[in-house]
Hints:
mainly alpha, Vanadium-containing Chloroperoxidase, domain 2, two-stranded antiparallel sheet, 2 strands, about 50% helix, disordered N terminus
Amino acid sequence: MRRLHTAFYASVVLLFGPVVTRADVVLDWNAIMQTTVAGQAFPSARFAAITQLAVFEAVNAITRDYKPYLGTITVIAPAGASAEAAAVAAAHAVLKNYFPGAAAILDAARASSLATIPESVAKDAGIAVGETAGTAMIAARTTDGSETPEFYLPPLPSPGAWQQTPSCPAGGGTFLHWRNVKPFGIRSSDQFRLDEPPSFTSARYRRDYNEVKEVGGANSTERSQDRADVARFYGATNPVAVWNSVARQLSVAQGNSLSENARALALLNMAMSDAAVATFDTKYHYKFWRPETAIRFGDTDGNDRTDPDPAYVPYVTAPCFPSYPSAHATLSNAAREVLERIYTNRHHSMTLSNAAVPGVTLNYTKLKQITEDIDDARVYGGIHFRFEQEAGADMGRRVGAFIYKQYLGNVHGCNCEPSTETENRRSRP
């Protein structure tokens, strides 16, 4: 069993609303975006990427600090246009398009943000640029494969084969179609497809099976309170909420510019959305069983050291799709990779909490600590094997490295800091 890291378990705050310390409109509207798109992790990641890329395109069309994503907005941005007005208009246009039910709230937020910018030709020009950027990003994602849900009905049970769990709808496994969603940056959904899970007779499978069986059951006496709290927290808090909040806190601490913030948030959300596409390619390629199925039928896997527990129920409800790799690990490590490259791997002060999990507050000083807690959360929650966390981390880091190096580069140089070793590292489960 892993040593628990409790030194960073303390009182902190995750910002699901506007940031406490007002920084700039890019960060303000990132917080609004986070609240607006809240829901299932993978559609949220897609909406977040569209929004933040629209904001980036709008701001960058005026500042011209970085290489554009679409490259179609720069030509219409007049000199002196307001980048702040452009950011507000772009975010508002995207969010109102996809979330018309929130129109009144979004309209009020737009009016409030624009009221801080003096009336001028520059403001009007910035609004026009932002609206154009929003429209262009919406058009770029039309018919991207996300529209029509598909489900997976598993065949008769067999060792290793994913079976429906209690959270499943009658149609079967969810998000089957997500492997076919058009990525924002990676070349294809299978570009970073993982090797197969470890064999049932391996020491690694036996070790990880027995770990989750011991600490992940609903009635486990081996799960400490802090690991239980972490499991509940990350069971209720998806990667979009976690990592956008972290990015805002890092930006405020570092004092980044409007343009820098627009780029960082675009890269972050591109990476998470593409990590979701990549993880579903691997999930539905192998269709690997969840621990709750594996442990109930441990006598069928051919390993005489994986004793079954027919009554096993996980502490956290498993989502309804195949287990390998962990999606939370994949998206979170894609985010971590991008943020470490932008803000470096030094000590930070980051705070996380969620009103949906009252009484649980978390404090971190390094990004790695967050992904370590997420790994523990899924194992102590009983819904993932440790090797699935490690595999997801590997995939996520490679997706994040690819996005960072290939997109939105500084016009004066490359995106090559601080290290590229993780781009080519590939652990084998």
